[in-house]
Each structure stands twice: as C-alpha cells, then as structure tokens.
Amino acid sequence: MLDGAPTKKPRLCSAGDTSGSGGGAAPEDRLSALPDAMLHHVMSFLRAWEVARTCVLSRRWRHLWASAPCVDLRIWRLGRHRWPPEEFAKFSYRFLLERDASAPVDTLRLLSSPGCAGGRNDYGSPISVGGKDYFSDDVDMWIHSAIKRRARVIQLVGHPEDESYTDFRRVNIVSCHLKVLMLSESFLSDRTLRQLSSRCPSLEVLDLKKCYLEGREISSASLRSLTIDEWSIISIQG
After folding, report:
1. For residues 52 and 70, what is the distance between their CA atoms, to the nearest angstrom?
2. Each residue of 156-206: pLDDT tens digit?
3. Is 102 exposed, middle or buried (0-12, 13-18, 19+ CB in 10 A)?
4. How far apart are CA 22 and CA 10, in angstroms?
5. CB of 198 closer than 8 Å to CB of 177
6. Element (H, E) at 88
7. How far apart are CA 157 and CA 165, in angstroms?
C-alpha cells in the first residue's frame, strides 16, 4: 500500500498560495530564503502534522514537507499529548504515501499505540485521544514504509499510558541502510533477532528497553553499541 510512488506533485493540503500578491510590498521572508537542508532541520523538531501545515506558508514551502527527512508520528511527548489530526492513522498513511518518492525517510519516530488519554470505558478499555486510534499492524506498515525509503534511524517508543507491545509480525527488519534502532516495550521474536543479526549490515546502535526477547543470541559484526534495559528472555525449545 505504501510502496507506490505518487502520480503527481505532493499536495497534502489544499490551501492556496499565501505568499501575498495583493497591494503593498510583502515583508522580507528571510526564513524562506534559507536552503532546503536548513529548513528540513527546522522541520525535524516538528510533528508530522505540523510539518504538513507548513505547505500553506508560501509557494516556497508548498512541497517542502514532502522531502523532509524526519517523520515524527509521536502523539505524546514531555508528559502530554500533542493532539494530532482526526483520523490519525489515515493521515499517517497519506503523509508517507504522498511524500516525494525520491526522498529518503532518514528518521522515523513513533509510538507503539495512541494511548488512552480519553480515559477508560466502563469495561476498563482505553479510550484513545479523540478517536485517533491505530494498532500494531499500522505500526508495522509505517516501519516497513520507512525501511523501503532507506531509513537510517528508527525509534519506536511505548506509550506511557498503555501496555501494548509491538511484535513486528507483519514487517521484516531487513535493511542495508539502517544504522540506529531504538525500541521500547516491544516483543522481538527469534526471527526478528536473526534479521537484526544478519540482515542489517550497517546497524551500529541497538537500544532495547522493556523488551521481551525470544531467541538465543544477538550477533552482529557491524554493531558498536548494544543497550538492553529491563528485559525479559523467553526461552525457545529445540
């Protein structure tokens, strides 16, 4: 679903050009005069939906979001929710699909679940923020999309208000570009551990926190830093 290239120029937002063509001279826009690399660095501090909104700033910014190297889908940070758009899962798929096909996703940051900032229902089940719900299968697809687009850094963080674990059942962690992988509250099967050991030849940093590990070993010739904190090992037979 996410591997197809867009058939036309990215237009995530429908707002028109706001560069100002009416009467009077427009004030000097020094920010827009900066090179793409510097503007992309500024965007790396924003969430994906905030990056998308920059397309209405001026003609200079209209398509800049589509090649931003950092995709940050975390809806929780510094102890509070960031209130992303309605139908967050649908937005995330569209954001990744309508990117410039030639632009790599250098960094992907996301949460394993949307949490339960809406409280809990009468049965104790979490209510996500404004109905912005997604599941582990969606997380797998977003990681798959980033890997296909040559991601070097992937950071998956567990939501502090939810105990959901990501198990990577629908994604293969196989990449010659991935250098940094940071996971928390994840289940790593023997298959995933073997992929990290032998199918990620550029992997240098592996950071695991509160993860369940099912496998005999992690062995990588490229790995320079391995951090495992608050882990549990599930033994396998045979």
Report:
1. 12
2. 998 766 667 889 999 999 999 999 999 998 999 999 999 999 999 999 999
3. exposed
4. 26
5. no
6. helix 88-97
7. 10
